[in-house]
Design goal:
By secondary structure, the protein is α/β, with parallel strands linked by helices. Helices cover 39% and strands 22% of the residues. It has helices at residues 12-19, 37-46, 57-65, 82-95, 97-102, and strands at 2-5, 23-26, 50-53, 72-75, 104-108, 113-117. The chain starts with a strand and ends with a strand.
């Protein structure tokens, strides 16, 4: 399982996820910081990444295109809770591995994670 961190995810999340056994790559390490969401989605799809973002636009794109990939994990919690958020993301990734491989959106807040299978 590989996770691509969108521009709006704090850099420290990459190291924290890696420490928890999740392979991560930050978008700025492979693409332009001002890239359109479609470009990030294409890269993630072509390279078998799950997109980790705070942006709702990725889910909207999946809804419009009815694509099965890439899977998206949306963080809907304050970055002030970094440890807690990364723990929740790690848990959601591991618990929903099969669904994410097939195509899914997971929305995470401090209370729960909600899964939606693709296509929408």
């Amino acid at each position: 399982m590989k996770v691509l961190l969108d521009m709006n995810i704090p850099f420290k999340y990459a190291a924290m996820l890696t420490q928890r056994g999740i392979e991560t790559l930050r978008w700025p390490d492979v693409g332009a910081p001002n890239a359109k969401d479609e470009e990030i989605m294409t890269y993630a799809r072509e390279n078998n990444f799950i997109v980790l973002t705070c942006d709702l636009d990725f889910s909207t794109l999946l809804s419009i295109t009815h694509d099965l990939k890439p899977s998206v994990v949306q963080v809907r919690a304050s970055v002030l809770h970094a440890e807690r958020v990364v723990d929740l993301v790690t848990s959601a990734l591991l618990q929903n591995k099969d669904e994410l491989e097939d195509g899914a959106i997971i929305s995470i807040d401090l209370k729960r994670a909600r899964l939606r299978l693709l296509p929408i």
